[in-house]
Amino acid sequence: MKLYGIPNCTTVKKARAWLEARDIPYEFHDFKKQGVPDAVMKSLMKHLGWEALVNRNGPTWRKLDDAEKAAVKDAASALAVMKTHSSVIKRPILDRDGQYQVGFSEENYGAFFGE
């Protein structure tokens, strides 16, 4: 199982704490240090749609210039922006054998893990 995100993100910290409190092992992939993996993002976009992965409410999105925001209109353009500005990716992303959970809430993680 792999958790994708940015270590200083509050929501990622909550997800990691939730997993660790339950002794659920996972590998952490830091978007800032390890980059944005094309294969994972393309798989996510296929299953969830690219819109579900772009965090339009975060500070990184708000700091983009209007032309860059307007250019995000399909999966390819969204992936290009996510690779350039990894903080614009909605996070955390949990991959458990090809089943994905985007974002974190105790209720969603509880249901995802059968609690």
Q: What's the topology here?
A:
Layout: E1 2-5, H1 10-21, E2 27-30, H2 31-34, H3 38-48, H4 59-63, H5 66-71, H6 75-84, E3 93-96, E4 99-102, H7 106-112
Overview of the structural elements:
With 115 residues, the protein is of the alpha+beta class. It has a single domain (2-112), classed as Glutaredoxin. The protein contains seven helices and four strands; from the N terminus they run βαβαααααββα. The chain has a four-stranded mixed sheet. α1 (10-21) links the parallel β1 and β2 (27-30). The radius of gyration is 14 Å and the shape is globular.
Low-confidence segments, given as residue ranges, are: none
User: How many domains?
Assistant: 1
Give the C-alpha Rg. 14 Å
Q: Count the helices. How many?
A: 7
**Spatial strand sequence of the major β-sheet:** 2-1-3-4
Top CATH class: Alpha Beta
So, the CATH homologous superfamily?
Glutaredoxin
Mean pLDDT: 93
Give a short overview.
This protein has 115 residues and is an alpha+beta fold. Helix content is 48%, strand content 14%. It has a single domain (2-112), classed as 3-Layer(aba) Sandwich (Glutaredoxin).
Features:
single chain; 115 residues; alpha+beta; Glutaredoxin; 4-stranded mixed beta sheet; 7 helices; 48% helix
